[in-house]
Specification:
Aspartic_peptidase_AS, Cathepsin D, subunit A, domain 1, globular, aspartic-type endopeptidase activity, Aspartic_peptidase_A1, 10 helices, binds 2-acetamido-2-deoxy-beta-D-glucopyranose, 14% helix, 477 residues
């Protein structure tokens, strides 16, 4: 079945090869220090979501520790009775939460890059006494199958949505296929079990019975599970009652990737909103009529260097067309920020105009990044460089000077008194479909990012996330 799905995927569905090109693809040598773009946005599907409102209005805050890996941030999930700990990507660009599932049978195709990098924890359904398969009448079952996704086993088998909608149905929810923007696919069954989450003071845990998630037996290019933080009914914040409140995170700098000694908090609930400082700048959350489950913000201009000159970006980065395409997705599941052509090339030219270091063309060829420079590093030690600051201007006069290490980043340790640094932005693949740009997790390092779902806005505040973590006792010495 998985192979069949794969063929469908490769042959029938060019749409799925969307937006997010992988730096890794042009790097056959595997020398790349930084990771590949984690896939993100699930297949954009028109949906009309009604959030389930039958939740207590007062939910306790939740705080989980995010760990950084080379291409994203992991959140630990404790599922089942007794609880099994599974680390999954925290992804604001999709809704479904899923874990690799099965005794010995979890299969990940085209995952060689990861196999040695991660110790995979696999959820064992037979070890949990509280687990059961979601039923066909569950709103989540309808949700996960309510797509035009021709890979969906339900669709392949010819069972229609209207069959599912007959709520008398008491059969188990048919297995699903869920597709991600960069080409990943996961297939599995919708399952319910107890999820244990942490409160905002140490030692306090909360049990969420009947949490609905995917028990995934086979995937294509998705080796680790994902916690969906989108706005759809299936998402983790939605099921836990945080969709009317919000959440916040402070992503550690890349140098802490795979460091077991430090993590940073992901906060859900009132505290995520109330702890924001006066200097927090808020830009409105835009709602795409076509993709209402994604978080969009509007980018208006970019400034390179210290000048007061703003370079306007295409209006597609702050507006939707009549079909709902356009806007800038803010997505923790995409590694690098993606900008549309021809603006992306214009930005490269602007940068080339003010940077005087020699280019490192061979590194560009090897890594797939478009702008790399050789920076002198006497005695092979890192010294201050002179890259211009890059400032993003979002709607509502939000001026975000990106922390320096969020754009030009060292590809390897200094050698021969030189270090090569590359601009970690990428161009959006051609195509008129979906978002016009993506604000990725690499550019969200050392920023406090607040998803204020009450007031429909997203806040930014530069912050040293390692210090913030240390002050909260999350830095093991
Ligand atoms: C899973 O593994 C356990 C112990 O190895 C075994 O007892 C059980 O039958 C297995 N379950 C399935 C569904 O394979
Ligand atoms: C936990 O959350 C409650 C309610 O939002 C708040 O009053 C309290 O200060 C928080 N405690 C900590 C340690 O953050
Ligand atoms: C983490 O802490 C341990 C114990 O202090 C130390 O040996 C190790 O080098 C640290 N790891 C990193 C990556 O800093
Ligand atoms: C490089 O190392 C040499 C010898 O250790 C030292 O004399 C020199 O000052 C160093 N240069 C810089 C720029 O640190
Ligand atoms: C920009 O301003 C900062 C401090 O205001 C200064 O350190 C830096 O050299 C300036 N950069 C350029 C390219 O003018
Ligand atoms: C935008 O913000 C800047 C400071 O960041 C301020 O000087 C300017 O007056 C603001 N403009 C508007 C239209 O609010
Ligand atoms: C350092 O320079 C030597 C001689 O020019 C060269 O052979 C070597 O490949 C260089 N090493 C790196 C890491 O660039």
């Amino acid at each position: 079945m998985a192979i069949l799905i794969l063929l469908f995927f490769l042959v029938v569905n060019p749409l799925f090869h969307l937006h997010f090109s992988l730096a890794r693809d042009s790097n056959p040598n595997g020398v790349l220090v930084l990771g590949l773009s984690q896939s993100s946005a699930s297949l954009p599907i028109p949906k009309d979501h009604k959030t389930s409102l039958n939740r207590p209005t007062e939910v306790l805050d939740m705080v989980e520790q995010l760990r950084e890996v080379r291409d994203g941030y992991l959140i630990p999930l404790n599922i089942g009775t007794p609880p099994q700990a599974i680390q999954v990507y925290m992804d604001t660009g999709s809704d479904l939460t899923w874990v690799p599932c099965g005794n010995l049978s979890f299969e990940c195709m085209d995952c060689d890059d990861y196999r040695n990098s991660y110790k995979l924890a696999i959820f064992s359904p037979s070890q949990s006494s509280s687990l059961y398969r979601d039923s066909c009448a569950s709103p989540f079952c309808v949700d996960i199958h309510s797509s035009e996704n021709s890979l969906d086993p339900c669709t392949v088998a010819g069972c229609s949505l209207s069959t599912l909608l007959k709520s008398a149905c008491s059969r188990p929810c048919p297995s699903f296929a869920y597709t991600y923007g960069a080409g990943g696919v996961v297939t599995g069954t919708l399952t319910r079990d107890t999820l244990r989450v942490h409160g905002n003071s140490s030692g306090v845990t909360r049990e969420i019975p009947k949490f609905s998630f995917g028990c995934v037996g086979s995937t294509y290019r998705e080796p680790i599970g994902i916690a969906g933080f989108g706005r759809g009914a299936l998402s983790l914040p939605s099921q836990l009652g945080f969709l009317q409140k919000g959440f916040s995170h402070c992503f550690l700098a890349f140098k802490y990737a795979n460091n077991p000694n430090i993590s940073s908090p992901l906060v859900l609930g009132n505290y995520a909103l109330s702890s924001s400082k006066d200097s927090m700048q808020f830009t409105p959350m835009l709602k795409s009529p076509m993709f209402p489950n994604y978080y969009y913000i509007g980018l208006q201009a970019i400034t390179v260097g210290n000048s007061s000159t703003r370079t306007e970006v295409p209006s597609s980065l702050s507006e939707f067309d009549s079909l709902g395409n356009g806007g800038m997705l803010i997505d923790s599941g995409t590694t690098y920020t993606h900008l549309p052509e021809p603006f992306y090339s214009q930005l490269l030219s602007l940068l080339q105009g003010v940077i005087s270091y020699p280019r490192a063309n061979e590194v560009e060829t090897r890594t797939g990044f478009d702008l790399c420079y050789k920076v002198p590093s006497p005695n092979n030690t890192f010294t201050d460089d002179h890259f211009p600051p890059i400032t993003f201007h979002f709607l509502n006069n939000v001026t975000l000077v990106l922390p320096q290490e969020n754009h030009f980043y060292a590809m390897s340790a200094p050698a021969n008194s030189t270090v090569v640094k590359c601009l970690l932005f990428q161009s959006m693949d051609e195509g008129e479909y979906g978002p016009a740009g993506v604000f990725g997790s690499f550019q969200q390092q050392n920023l406090q990012v607040v998803y204020d779902l009450e007031k429909e806005r997203i806040g930014f505040q530069p912050m040293d996330c390692a210090s913030a973590a240390a002050s909260q006792g999350l830095h093991k010495k």
